[in-house]
Amino acid sequence: MKILITGGSGMLGSDVVPILSEKFDVVVPDTNEMDITNREQVFDVLGSQKFDYVLHMAALTDLDWCEDHPKDAKSVNADGTKSIALACREFGAKMIYISTSGIFSGKLGRPYTEDDVPKAANVYGQSKYEGELAVRETLPLERSLILRVGWLFGGGEHDKKFVGKIFQKMRILPKVQAVSNILGSPNYSVDIGNVIRGMIEKDASGLFHIANTGEPASRYDLAVAIRDFAGFDTEIEPVPSSKFPTRAIRPPMEAIASVFLDKYGFEIRHWRDAL
Ligand SMILES: NC(=O)c1ccc[n+]([C@@H]2O[C@H](COP(=O)([O-])OP(=O)(O)OC[C@H]3O[C@@H](n4cnc5c(N)ncnc54)[C@H](OP(=O)(O)O)[C@@H]3O)[C@@H](O)[C@H]2O)c1
Fold first, then answer.
1. Residue nearest to atom 28 of ligand 1 (CA)
2. Alpha-carbon gap, residue 49 to 85, rounded angstroms
3. Reduced to 3 states, what is the DSSP secondary structure of residue 6?
4. Which of 29, 43, 55, 144 is the most buried (most CB within 10 A)?
5. Residues with beta carbon inside 6 Å of ligand 1?
6. What pLDDT, in 10s, does the model give residues 52-93?
7. Which residue has the CA at smallest separation from atom 8 of ligand 1?
């Protein structure tokens, strides 16, 4: 089985690529070799060998930067995804697209499932949702897999998100602040990699939410869990999100749950165990 992977140098990729490499023949072009905004280059690379799958993780992921650069966000996250989908259709590869819990408005008082209707609250979320639509309108359901993931942690030194940052801060600071009024689903990149591998082995298709299980968590909850686990004695102050104004709106509820994973026999551990 030969798999082309985009975004392999990113936070998620740094854990997923080694997991897939154990089992499959993977090809991981960097941005110079395949810039997904260059449709000709995308077709050249996908047409250069017979790929069974394309795992598409490349994206612009900085929410505030995307908010200020909506054209770039659309060009990479939506149009770039469209190019990959078109090339998959042309050359007969099955496509796996990594999407995000950030496509929902966050107004629901419970975790979002695959049955809920997306309505993004910011440019990043909208561009990722347009990426989903591009996959759906280009490829038949049985030739594509859309996987929405939650708040990533993992990737070792590539962890540029909350868990990586707060861990480093709590090592050295006596006190930190963490936002307590926004909820999400913490999601370990290694667990995502294992689910992707299992889905390829089972030839799964369709749309799945694949965050770690467990109660929705705020960044404050995560910080407390890390402190207890790591044995730090840092004081953690819960603060509202208004304390850290951001250019992109953060939906108040970003947690996701799956109504479909059980059917395929996939089990994902609790985020506290993964942490
Ligand atoms: N991080 C999260 O919490 C989170 C949550 C939900 C969903 N996701 C989704 O998960 C996926 C991976 O996220 P991540 O956090 O690993 O992202 P990341 O660390 O920001 O890495 C992004 C990757 O995309 C590549 N890339 C960006 N623009 C490109 C272009 N024009 N052509 C080719 N490659 C390009 C980057 O390559 P360079 O290194 O060369 O720039 C890098 O390998 C994304 O699809 C993201 O939307 C992430």
1. 59
2. 16
3. strand
4. 55
5. 6-7, 9-13, 30-31, 35-37, 57-61, 76, 80, 98, 100, 128, 149, 151-152, 161
6. 999 999 999 999 999 999 999 999 999 999 999 999 999 999
7. 100
Domain spanning 2-153+186-214+256-274: CATH superfamily: NAD(P)-binding Rossmann-like Domain (3.40.50.720)
What is the overall mean pLDDT for the chain?
96
Tokens (6 digits) for 111: 């975790």
Q: Which atom of ligand 1 is nearest the CA belonging to 102?
A: 6
CA of 231 to the centre of ligand 1 (A): 32
Each domain of the chain, given as residue ranges in start order, spans 2-153+186-214+256-274
Q: Please tell me whether the overall predicted TM-score, pTM, comes out greater than 0.85 for this model.
A: yes
Sign of the four-CA dihedral 249, 216, 15, 170:
positive
C-alpha atoms less than 13 angstroms from C-alpha of 204 in its C-beta half-sphere: 23
